[in-house]
Amino acid sequence: MKLSFLGAARQVTGSMFLLEVDDYRILIDCGSDLERSNGQTPPITPHTGFFPFEASSINLVLLTHAHVDHSGNLPNLYREGYEGQILCTEPTYALTEVLLRDAATLNQKRINELNASKKQRVRDRQAQMMKDLYLEKQVREAMTNVVPIAFNRRFKVADGIDVTFIPAGHLLGAAHIVINVIDNGERKSLCFSGDIGRRNYPLLVDPAPVPQVDYLICESTYGNRLHEHKMSPMDALADVIQRTCIDIPGRLIIPSFSVGRTQALLYTLNRLYNERNFPPIKVFSDSPMAYESTKIYMQNIRLMNTEAKEFYEENEALFDFQNFEFLESSKASKAVSNYGEPCIIISSSGMVQGGRVEYHVAANISNPYSTILIIGYCAEGTLGWRLLNGQSTLTIKGKEHPVMANIERTDVFSGHGDRNDLMQFVQMQSPETLRRLFLVHGEFESMEAFKDTLAEAGYPQVEIPRRGQTYEL
Fold it and tell me: Which keywords, in A-to-Z order, does the entry hold (predicted)?
């Protein structure tokens, strides 16, 4: 049995792992590699296709959750010749379709812009991009081949191979995937952590226990740090709203990812208005993708935590409350600038890079009565990163704006478990029984620090694979 690390190796994005049991080949996740998109990650091999393997040689794909750094290249896999199935949970299937369709729409716009250019260098770039960009047809093909799998039920995928999806928190439908294999007459087990959620997160269940395995492939995003803010999401949001919209008649702009983060925000706001008697400040959610994702959340209340289910039974709504409005059209989005009362605007993307949020930031960045609350990770160079680093002016769509709004940050809505959560996940495994532990999905410095922490806790058999590295198990 062989395991190859083809993505998220010594980097955060591009999760993709290949498990080979004799002639049966399983691909676990098939995510977008943002480093490759930025030209930072060279190909693993001089393979002529998009992937470092023949797509047609893969027998099965397992998907841990919907985020594009885990799912984003599934359409390319089918375009390259894959003809098999994708196994994932029902919510992961629905949310992945929303994310991939949106990506295909953006890809088409990029292709149209490049085709309209008469510059040779742009046309050369277009020819290269065409190799990487999938469209609606490939998304349909991928989604047609998804087989939804229930949590906590062992599912046989081939002779001597079965898989189980275990709740991971982090995002609706996210799973740890346990694979049991009979290899040369010996029973072996592996667990792919996916992204590990944090405990007591709005809407989501806590990560569930994982049985003892022989090999653990564990994410390490927060392997070298703890969450900074110790308040609950409700207390943290209440504090910000009190200071920015109630004590003064201001505006609160919250850049937020449409899938997962926005739903946690809306649910927390609903609880604040219902349980703490907050004034009914107008709340606008400005993201068509958030609207579609919220409908999927409503269809899967049975998979949410006890608190959310009890709240729904009592109030008959998780995300709909007084003075709340989804903005469906771009015209309605721009009209919010004329709203004269204190309000909260939630819009994507969370990094303030692309999406309608750029308009809201531009319209409010020079208003000292406005506050921009960053609630997630912002990659270096994004507008969100520039705001967090105290840049005095910001250029948005070619126009420079002085930064006079208040800039705040909180990580209470991060869906990733921190170092303590990761340790709790790993320590479900006996160090005497666990044969090897592989760290993935993190910056290299985070992995090294987490490896040291694990060694101190009695786990000496920790590997940090390089991209393209293969292990015999």
Answer: Hydrolase
